[in-house]
Amino acid sequence: MKVFTTRVIPEEGLALLQRAGITVTQWSDLTEIPAKERIAKCKESDAMLFAGGQKIDRAFMEQCRHLKVISLLSVGYDNVDLKAATELGLQITNTPGVLSNATADSAFLLMQAVARKAFFHHKRILKGEWGFSTPTANLGVDIEGKTLGIWGLGNIGTVMAKRCRAAFGMKIIYNNRHRNEAAEKDLDATFVSFDELLQQSDVISVHTSLTPDTKEKFNAAAFSKMKPSAIFINAARGGVHNEKDLIAALQTGQIWGAGLDVTNPEPMNADNPLLEMPTVAVLPHIGSATIETRNAMSRIAAANVIAALNGKPVPNPVNHLYSL
Ligand SMILES: NC(=O)C1=CN([C@@H]2O[C@H](COP(=O)(O)OP(=O)(O)OC[C@H]3O[C@@H](n4cnc5c(N)ncnc54)[C@H](OP(=O)(O)O)[C@@H]3O)[C@@H](O)[C@H]2O)C=CC1
Ligand SMILES: O=CC(=O)O
């Protein structure tokens, strides 16, 4: 049995595949595998393991119907045409749960970096601009006791809420499509409408998946309803906010700051005005990028491949989610 991986995967997942007697071929180049090459590799393989957000569309999958599984090394599957996959009988799997802590930690880090303008100060020091500090200079804002609004209180959103409650005694409000009663009980979280979330939050942290419903939900209309002191955090997908509208909201003081682990497009251009703003912090989509977490993700992605190649039920299917 043969699996092709579109990026070099962490050691632990690789070892699991090899121990299961599967021949692993990896795309070791640091650039994205070209589309033609990807089809050629698919034709030689029984399974594919995808890392990164490369589009997996109907045209590609029509040529790869023989695959026993397309195993994603990610929890997000917005890059896959799930409807087409299911119609073509292709199993798609993901790696939920194990990356929730690391990803929430990146949102937590961004929240504090924005509140204290940490990235801006770091850039100034690099430029030799330590400067003369006065009691009214270099001021950020406190987080303690403020209201955190989570949009998408699922696995990652719940960890972010826990962290913020434990560290800063934040009051938690949230908006989902469905109420999360367990989190309401555990975190004393209050379900609010989307507009109430915008109006009441001091920090809004986005943790929804990217879907037609969530696409560019944070646009001019949404930013105009937020507090001028609000911090916007997005560690989900860049497509959930409209970048032009975010820039305008920051420039006109409609909101105070923004922390982004995800941008649209990725990578962000180095001349993007967001990178020059004192109350903005940007990370290059590193939410799950810790040694422990990426190894855990690779073990799960490998387990999905091994199950599929052995004709067993895959542990983490996502096909059923396309109709939700
Ligand atoms: N920055 C990074 O590196 C990473 C980013 N991610 C992103 O984070 C996302 C969330 O991951 P995870 O927490 O594991 O997923 P979950 O499925 O556990 O949580 C997603 C949440 O979003 C809610 N949601 C979905 N659609 C809507 C909507 N239209 N309006 C309001 N809420 C909605 C869901 O609740 P309900 O359906 O009840 O409304 C659910 O609570 C991933 O899809 C991925 O895109 C993930 C890992 C790393
Ligand atoms: O963005 C990362 C993911 O796991 O989804």
From TrEMBL:
Endpoints of the signal sequence: none
UniProt keyword terms in alphabetical order: Oxidoreductase
Coiled coil: none
Ranges where the D-isomer specific 2-hydroxyacid dehydrogenase NAD-binding domain occurs: 109-287
Domain D-isomer specific 2-hydroxyacid dehydrogenase catalytic residues, every copy: 6-319
SUPFAM superfamilies: Formate/glycerate dehydrogenase catalytic domain-like, NAD(P)-binding Rossmann-fold domains
Family of this protein: Belongs to the D-isomer specific 2-hydroxyacid dehydrogenase family.
Full protein name: D-glycerate dehydrogenase
The species this protein was found in: Chitinophaga hostae
